[in-house]
Amino acid sequence: METIIASAIAVLGTLLGSAITLAFQQRTTDRSHQFNRRERLRQERLDAYSVYAGALINYRRCLVHLWFCEHEHPPPESPDTVRIRAYDLRSNAQEALFLMQMLTDDETLSQAAEDVLADITRLAKADDRAELDDLRVRTRDDISRLVSAGKRHL
Q1: How far apart are CA 37 and CA 106, in angstroms?
Q2: Which of 19, 59, 89, 140 is at a distance of 20 to 30 A from 36, taking alpha carbons?
Q3: pLDDT of 55-113, one tens digit each?
Q4: SS3 67
Q5: Which regions of 41-141 does DSSP assign to beta strands (E)?
Q6: How deeply is 75 buried, as exposed, middle or buried, from its count of CB atoms within 10 A (0-12, 13-18, 19+)?
Q7: pTM to 2 decimals?
Q8: Residue 106: helix, strand or coil by DSSP?
Q9: 122: burial class by Cβ within 10 Å (0-12, 13-18, 19+)?
Q10: Which top-level group of life is the source organism from (predicted)?
C-alpha cells in the first residue's frame, strides 16, 4: 500500500511539475508573441511615419518650385508640368497620411499630420514672396515637429 501511495505521489508530482512547466512555457510563448506584435507595429509605424515625412517634403518642394514657375524668374519648366507633378505628390502624401493615421492610436498626432498637409498645400497660393517665405519656414518647422512627435509613438 505504501508503494502504491508513493507511486501515486510520484505521478502527481510529475504531473504537477509538467503542468507548471507547461504554464511557464505558455507564458513565455505569450510574452514572445506580444513582444513580436509590438515590435512589428513599431516597425510599421516607423516606416509609415518616415514615408509620410518624405512625401510631405517632396510635395512641399514641388509647390515651392511651382510658385517660382508662376511668379518669379521661371525656370525652364512649364507651370502646368509642375502642377501635374504636384497633384501626383499630393496624392502620394494623402496615401501616406491615411496609412499613418491607421497605424497611430494618438488622435493629436493624427490631426497634426493632417494639418501639416493642409499648410503645405497653401504654399502654391501665397500672394507674394514674403508670404511664401513665411509659409516655407512654418511648414519646414511643422514637418520637424511632426517627426519629433512621431518618434514618441514608436
Answers
A1: 18
A2: 19
A3: 999 999 999 999 999 998 766 788 899 999 999 999 999 999 999 999 999 999 999 99
A4: helix
A5: none
A6: exposed
A7: 0.80
A8: coil
A9: middle
A10: Bacteria
